[in-house]
Amino acid sequence: MAQSLLHYFYNTAKPTLFCLNAERAHGIASLSMRMIAPLLASPPQAKIQPKILFDRKIYSPIGIAAGFDKFCHAPEYIRRLGFGFIESGSLTPLPQKGNAKPRLVRVVGAEALINKMGFNNPGFVRGWNTLRARLATAPADYQIALSLGKGKETPVERAADDYMHCLDLLRRDIMSEYLFYIAINVSSPNTPNLRALQKSRAIRALVEACVKISPRPVVVKFAPDFDSLKHYRASLAAALAGGAAGIVISNTTTNHALAEIPAALKNFGGGLSGKPLAARARTYLQETLKETRGKIPVISSGGVYSPTEAIRRLDLGADLVQVYTGFIYYGPDFARDFLAAANKTGRHYN
Ligand SMILES: Cc1cc2nc3c(=O)[nH]c(=O)nc-3n(C[C@H](O)[C@H](O)[C@H](O)COP(=O)(O)O)c2cc1C
């Protein structure tokens, strides 16, 4: 099936999908896409040169952010739509139901989402079993990373145990060698105290411990909500000193004032994502790039609401870009339009 036809179908179905509860709509859209994946044409070709990151060839520098694929299927349709990678998870050691529903809402006028999912996930063992089977069959032009989080019940002082437990199981499994990278998520706003792990001393100790046993490069995902950019730089420097191999910047923001939120959602809580996050994500990206100075890859996430915005992040210096909310609003042609636009720029994103 031609992808533009799919885009047309999506945009026709979107008003109906958007009448449904956001989480249900995500489930229906994902399931339908998985069913029609075999009918999709092969991925669009990027004229831009593949880049090598973490010893892997990346054919398309745009990927899907964590939380989209919580059950770790790393679906084939994502590759066929032109995305070069996906960050599956976040997984916690034990299965979790997450917070009570509704926990995901749209702010349509702002092209935003607010979520307080609370790491609903199948637990490390089940999630990893699904993903390892997928890694065995995934084509080489589709890289699959895994995100790890802290369990809800784990006190923050014991948080390292959760990451170490999963990393230890990964280290014992040869299939983990096929992962693109392993993300240490310390920045979701919906797990009590998780963000305390971002403080300099805590993040350095955590990253040091993880790096020692991780079978793949350890990438740290930060929030865009530090008290000041100076504090962010300190935490970033600590993560680098601990041996972080890459940075994802950023997660959702708890600063809902960035968007015009309907009164009914004022006390919803959770993290805001999508277009209103764009400017702040750019600022944090630039700070990150100043600190990392090209030594390690930087992945830009947060408010990548259009293919043009994705190009803008690469132009700022990001090595890769991730999208979640923008994909929901823009539709299935996001990566394809990005690749077409990137090809036209004549620049080499490598
Ligand atoms: C429903 C939902 C669930 C998410 N779950 C996770 C998660 O499990 N782990 C994580 O690191 N980020 C998670 N995120 C954050 C996204 O990965 C991304 O960093 C954030 O939404 C900003 O990007 P965006 O503006 O393109 O959506 C989630 C976001 C949403 C909207």
Which features characterize this protein?
8-stranded parallel beta barrel; 350 residues; TIM Barrel; binds flavin mononucleotide; 3-stranded antiparallel β-sheet
CATH superfamily: Aldolase class I
The amount of helix comes to 25-40%
What fraction of residues sit in β-strands?
Answer: 15-25%
Structural class call reads: alpha/beta
H/E series, N to C?
HHEEEHEEEHEHEHEHEEHEHEHH
- Termini Cα gap: 30 Å
Averaged pLDDT: 95
Number of domains: 1
Shape: globular
Q: What CATH architecture label applies?
A: Alpha-Beta Barrel
Q: Return residue spans where pLDDT drops below 50 for at least 5 consecutive residues.
A: none
Strand order of the largest sheet: 3-4-7-8-9-10-12-13
Q: Note the main sheet.
A: 8 strands, parallel, barrel
Oligomer: single chain
Q: What is the overall number of helices?
A: 11
Radius of gyration: 19 Å
Compact description:
This protein has eleven helices and 13 strands. The protein has 350 residues and is of the alpha/beta class. It has an eight-stranded parallel beta barrel with strand order 3-4-7-8-9-10-12-13, surrounded by five helices. Strands 5-6-11 form a three-stranded antiparallel sheet.
Report on this model:
38% of the residues lie in helices and 15% in strands. Helix 7 packs across helix 8 (278-292). Strand 12 (298-300), helix 9 and strand 13 (320-323) form a beta-alpha-beta unit. The chain is globular. By secondary structure, it is an alpha/beta fold. Strands 3-4-7-8-9-10-12-13 form an eight-stranded parallel beta barrel, surrounded by five helices. A three-stranded antiparallel β-sheet has the order 5-6-11. The protein starts with a helix and ends in a 5-residue tail after the last helix. Bound molecules: flavin mononucleotide (FMN). Residues 65-67, 90, 104, 113, 115, 117, 119, 147, 185, 188, 221, 251-252, 273-274, 277, 301-304, 323-326 line the site of flavin mononucleotide.
